[in-house]
Amino acid sequence: MKNNNKDDNLILGKIFQLEKDKSLLLDFILEQYSSVIKQNPRFQSINSNNKESVNVAELLEYLKKKSSPTIVNSTSSFPSPSTSNISPITPNSSTDNLQTSPNNNITTPHINTNNNSNPTSLPNDYSILSKEQFHYASFECYLLLTHFSKPELINAETEELFRVQMEIPKAKYQGFIKLLSPNHISKHPLFTSLTYRLWLLKYFDFKLFDNYDSLMIWFRRQLYFILAGIINQLRDPFDDKDNKQIIDLKLCAYHLEKLMEDGKPSSVIDDQYQTKFRALDLMIGQILTKNSVHLSKQVILATEYLNEPIFHQFPLNTLIFEDLLFYNLFEFKEDEIVFVGDEHLRVSPSLKPLSTPLKITPTMEKISHLNCFVIAYQAEPTNEHFKRLLSSLDSIQQLIESNIQLVQDPSANTANLLKLTLKKIATWLIKLLSDVHSYKGENPAMAIDIACTIYSKSREMWGLLSSNKQTIRTTESNFSSFISASVSYHYQRASKAFRPMTLDNFSDFIDLLTPEIKSNLTYFTKGFQKHHSQCQVVALNEFVNLYSSDLKVVFADVYFLSPAVLKSVQTASAFQLFLEELNLIPYDKLPPVKDYVSSVIISWCQNQEKYFNKWFENSFKLDKFLPLDKDVKHSSSVIDMFQMFYQTISTLGKMRGSLSDNFPNFICTLSSMFNNCLIVYNSSIADITNCNQKNQLYPLSINERIHKKGKVRRSLSLSNPIIQSTLNSSSSSSSSSSSLNNQQQQQKEKENNYSQLTPFLQTRLQSTSLLTLCVCLNNLDFILKHLHDYIEQHSYNNESLKVKLIELFQPVQIQIKNTCKQLIDFIGCRVVFFDCKSTILDQTYLAPLIDNTDRIQFSLDSLNPHLKTIYGNVQSIDRSNEILTSVCKSFVQAYQWILLYSGPNRMYQPKDASMIEYDIELVKDFFLDRDEQGNANGVPDKTFDAIIQGTLKVVNLLMELASEVLIEQFNNNTSPNSRNMFHNDIILSVLIHRADKPAKNFIKKKEQDPSFHSIKKGSKINLNL
């Protein structure tokens, strides 16, 4: 039974509550739709006393048919007044002068309605005042709180100074005074009350305005200001969303505004105006009654509460104070914001009277200063504003840390104001630090450093305001996201013009990106350095990650070479090297560019190899092997070859960053091609010069002629008429026919003295000048000299690569050096045995030495033109001296041939030895080319002595001996105990050139000896006697 009674009581309680709610709703409906209900006789008699008898269903059906304006679209939204929208106006904003009232333009939102007569939805951003209009509203508030509420304290001079400081024109000020003055039609709320403005809208005089547009500007400012104040009582200051009650309030005000805008009533006594205004007045009254413990519950209309003020609550009160404070702290001179306030954050006397009615505590005044400094910096980002902002934040922090009770006073909104300020600062700083490149101030690094400091202090102060007073520490990780986000935003802006990114615009983008990264690390990211030790690493890593994504897109599906591909590869390489040189991120974290471009470089190298081969096909055809000029004595081909490879390696070097650790391998690949070119070039020089055919130029020795002919001479009488006349002075001269036969025989013998050159070699020797040989030698020297530079330059400070290049080029260097040696020997041999053959081999010592006064000088003089060519066209004097030594060596060889192997055309006697020694000294003087001090400028003294040593031995030890002694030595050499230093072939060669009887008889006997035919069979001239 007890349970049943309990359930019955609950049911009865719910019924009573529903009846009460129904009564309240009917009261609201009757009041809100009184004009509509009066139109129906059936419902005219309804009032608060007989409302229980109303048929609610019928009443609602009637109201639906009449399209009641109270039907609200629940999906509509409205942003509450925020600090960003009701802040001080822009400096030096233009104003229009008024005669009786303010007529500045106001931001009128777009009306979003399907039926202008019965709007059912709110426009976007409804009831938000522009910065300019809010400033006027704030100044009106100042007048109401000082000029009107305390007329006995009015100081005209102070108020005028304040007006000027607030940048309010005189005419506008007079209009404000006139419009804010009560018309004494009825009693009004207190001037300090928010409802006084609502009372003005109920009784204001339309005739005070010059035109209807001015009226609407003033009307909207008062209406929106009232809404902002009432909404503060319905919503938490940290909540940006409108609840249904706020939406209903705005919609009610919007209906009134639409009536004023579309209906244009003539005065406030218009029935429609009174109806719309009464609905708003009633709704505000109910809100004030419900939310205030001071108001009497019988008060319905807000304009009828006259005894106590409805204060401007937070955050409207602080916004008003901050707006006026801003103009009190700063002056606007030539588009600059100049601080004229108190550095100690003290409020000026002209503004101090507002602190009490607006409930602004001294601590809140300092926080308001902080907000003003934020606004000043946002309007003009200078370091002075930023430093002042930081200084004010420091002072507030010190104040709170020393006395936490200052922000815990429940009678003031100090804590809420500080939280709202810190939230606004945090929002602003997050935007700034997340996109530092958008900063337009004078010193980005300094500004960012200060911003980071403010951000850290803001977080610490927020911790002090929390309920548990937790300590919030700002670590490096808090700034990492800022750095990455800032780089990301900047990269997106920089690359926007290059989207979609392709091979055609990739290089242009990197050309733009490189200086941007430098600027970021130097001027922007550097600002985080005190707060994040690795800030530059974080920034560069973000750049690299974004760049790597684009790199993959650019080089995706590249299967062929083109100028754009190579240019992009080179650009990527240069950028990779740039990243390496920054030395901020590990090598393995760099963009994987080599994965995309290695195949491209392989194809490029293959094409280069084809180009090299084609070049070689034409290089020797085009090169005439003539000196380029008097100073540059090598020919064009060797320069072209080096330039070709230097350009190729340089092109590859531009791709170095793209190839990463593959770069040394590609250097070796191209260098191997260069090495092959050098090998071919060296062999081509050897082929052009025929330097390996030197032995073909030597004349045949006696031994070779014995081997070929079987007999060395027939008789002295057939050999040489001069020798015959010398040995047989008693004989008569030969007849003319005999002389002709002797000349023919002499020519035949002469031809038999020389080896037979092939037609090809004969033609090549005639067509290849001594100058060409010198230029070829210069070319080889050029290669040897510059190969070292090539290795040093293209090892790129990589010791491992340098060792590989040295090993690669070492064999060809040896080959080229050998070719140079062969070529030098060939030049000397050619000068003596080909160019000067007729002078040296054919004429020297043909007449008996005693009758030949110019025995050797004529032969030496014949060398001078050729030596002049050598010294005039060989690149270095040292190389020229080496060739001179080769000529000297060949001349001595020819001299030996004349003394030992030219028989039977030449005959010598023992007494000729002294004259031959004298001639050898002349030869030495010629090749040594001594200066005035006796120093050799040509062939070194010791070198010449070593060359001539064997010849001197023959002259000194053999040629002075009688033929009988020579025959005896010859015979002794056949015994096993013989110690003679000369072989029999040398002794035999000396005897062949003797015309005395013992020598002739001995030679005649030996011609029949089979052993004579085998002496040094097949040998050439023996230099080392």
Automatic annotation (TrEMBL):
Domain MHD2 span(s) in chain numbering: 853-970
Pfam families: TPR_PATROL1 (PF25761)
Region (Disordered): 70-119, 726-752
UniProt cross-references to Gene3D superfamilies, sorted A to Z: 1.10.357.50
Superkingdom of this protein's organism: Eukaryota
UniProt feature, compositional bias: Low complexity: 73-119, 726-746
InterPro entries given in the database record: Munc13_1 (IPR014770), Munc13_dom-2 (IPR014772), PATROL1_C (IPR057984), unc-13_homologue (IPR008528)
Residue ranges occupied by any MHD1 domain in the UniProt entry: 566-685
Name of the molecule in the record: Uncharacterized protein
UniProt organism field: Tieghemostelium lacteum
